[in-house]
Fold these 2 entries.
Entry 1:
Amino acid sequence: MSEHLPKVAIVDYMLGNLFSVKQACAHVGLEAIITSDKKIIQDSDAVILPGVGAYGDAMAALCRLDLVSILCEIADSPKPLVGICLGVQLLMTESFEFGRHKGLGIIEGQVLRFDNPREGERILKVPQIGWNRIRPAVNTCWGNTLLRGVAEGEYMYFVHSYFVQPKDHGVILSVSRYGNIDFCSSIQRKNVFACQFHPERSGAAGIRLYQNLAAQLKTMISGTK
Amino acid sequence: MNIRIIPRLDIKGPNLVKGIHFEGLRVLGKPEYFARYYYENGADELIYMDAVASLYGRNSLLEIVSKTAREIFIPLTVGGGLRSVDDIRQVLRAGADKVSLNTAVIARPELIHEASRAFGSSTIVVSIEAIRKTDGTYEAYANYGRERTEVDVFEWAKQAVELGAGELMVTSINNEGAGKGFDLELTRRIAESVPVPVIAGGGAGKISDVCNVITQGKAEAVALASILHYNYIRHHRATGDDYSREGNIEFLKRGASFSKIQDAAISDIKKYLLANNIDCRSSFPSVQPVSSDLSRELANV
């Protein structure tokens, strides 16, 4: 048994509501701290980069809090880094949300807006708000990722107008479809996992991701002893 | 696109209540029981609406919200009596994911802008409660349908979205609780005039009404109360709780029956929608009870 609960730093850059992420962590036995303190982020066992709101504001806040370089360092370390919603978009090279914004550049790729999604005659609203299925991308396996045990075609909860388009399709873990538009709904590159949906709002299936994270961290911690 | 089915729980003090045209509120039971049941049976989100809000204080609502948020992992919208950015922050901290605003933003529309800047547009639902007048126009009402505003709902809907509302919830007070179907014209005109999703509420009396407000009313989501609550009560009579000090309980004592409403479970509704080629989250796996804390707490209510 480990002596302490795995510690997860939820990066707080003063945008959005992080409460549900913290609740989900607590639910699966993770000690979560909402913080923008570099030392705490560095000392944690895993880092969650959540986010709602505008891309430009979020990047400006990360710069102001001087968190850009530490997030890039963590992405290159063995420590799990989990991006959620705006968090997955921030990992990219650049976004075209209200102009052009530079992202963290951890994953090479762009952030694009849903362009007139349609379903038959009906023009779909942007943002997409609601449940949508996630399916494995070509040649990917969820077995060693946070999606382990999640059924193919499972529903997750989305709230977004933009989606990521990684340059290297090899990082795409799952795809989803909104009207006539296919988009990347989660990515994995080494220790970095990030998803466009909100696992903490996606019922039992979403909580499975947090359970997988907790199990992974517990194994890591007991392995270092 | 998957249509969302959203149980709406109107809350007065510690109790779930339901009225007709927002009046004559009857006690139906403890909201936590209903919320848990809906979560486990395919609800896509939940709405908690404080029916008396500013009149009686908000502490019991906050308690119910935080209890719910600890155990229920789908989006929770909370509304009723929220007047300021600080009020909104308080319910979000208690565990709500979104807030629903009506009275305060009619009085001061800039609050929509301030709140969406502070918490993100996707957190802000503007609730529009409309009364159809004899000349065919629609007026927005404030204070849970108690107060006229002289605001035209269609202009208001557009303005609310321009100011930063992430979704609109549109309720016909004429039809609310009456079980005669949604106001399809009201819903459709608003849904077609704004770029954000519209949640239709007020009027479902049978399953086909839900279908109609999606196909003809063009709603992206449907808020349901009576049709689901009466179904729950019919299957879960005799909770053993004593509501005798808590207002109008005649309805509960008689056992739920309200001739205008053909009650239905969420799964019945979703099956019907799927049969009519309307997509919705349907094959939800049975949710494992991950912790028994809530059931213990509920047992002590």
Entry 2:
Amino acid sequence: MEAFVASKVDDYRAGRITRRQLIETLTVAAATAYTAPGATAAPALPGLKVALVNHISYTCPNFKQAADWYSKMFNLEQVGATQNDVVLPFGQKGERPFGVTANDVPMTHLIIRTRDLNARPQNGGPPRRQPKALVNHVAYTIADWDQNRVRAELARMGYRNPEVDTPYSFHVVDVNGYDVQISGIAMTALNVGG
Amino acid sequence: MEDFIAGLVAQLDSGAMDRRQFCETVALAAMVYAAGEEAANAAPAQGFKPIAINHISYACGDYRKARDFYSSLLGMAPAPNADNGRETRLMFGPPAGQGGSFLIPRNGSIVPRAKAVVDHICYTIPNWNENEVVATLKAHGLEPTGRPGSLHVYDPFDYDVQIANAVEENAFRR
């Protein structure tokens, strides 16, 4: 797509097409480029092929407090609560995840827990290894990104000076001081930020 | 869409936007358009509506080991020109700009600054075939634990990685 746009810009600047033709051509191309069957099919890769994040396991001292923070910030319902954890799905039961067409890819969800990560497993297995890596933040894509609207909503929720990452995202910290990034769909691996 | 592109052409003509910015913006607009205006305009009255994990920032001592692990085992695709010698971006799921996600393996501190920790991440593998999944994990030198349809392995930094199918791991399973 980008190469096609570049070629049309060259045509326009060289006088080969008019401004009106440039606009019409790009309008049609933009509206159809990614909707043709197979246009987005990824090539087969060796090994496994991840379709989506299934869930993020978040462990903290008080899971109820954290779950309430995420419910409020992201309008997430809490389901399947136990004494130690609760699940926060990104939608209703039966909904298909955004952008996914396969039937066997469930909705992404958070599992917010309170537990001792150093405890021996109840099944008698070996203790959990101590990771030498850290997921230092998670970014969430939200619907209807508008920088001013998001800034205003964050201010209403008490975040008056959220860290600006790119035009498409802000950072805040949750109730446990964990870095949470709130992003628009235009923030992708193909542009900047993170 | 036409009004939007006309506005961009005006910026291009006036010099407010260079050729590269113009091309990137139109290409991105096409992706967002394809993603569907309905979902992209579904903001709630208060708070936000998450539609996907945008990205996961993963700090470790050598991002290259993580990069190689996640790309070779889980099929995450390196983003073009993203590798700067300190970090990179690996794409997975729907296409970029249409709900796709990415992992950022990066060199960085692993000392937690928060009272919370993301202790593992579970990834969905579609078209799950237990024998093939286990064989693939073992071919990579891993020893999966867990139960059929929901397996755990450790990455090169002993970070807990879970892979699962839709039956064994979904939000409404309990």
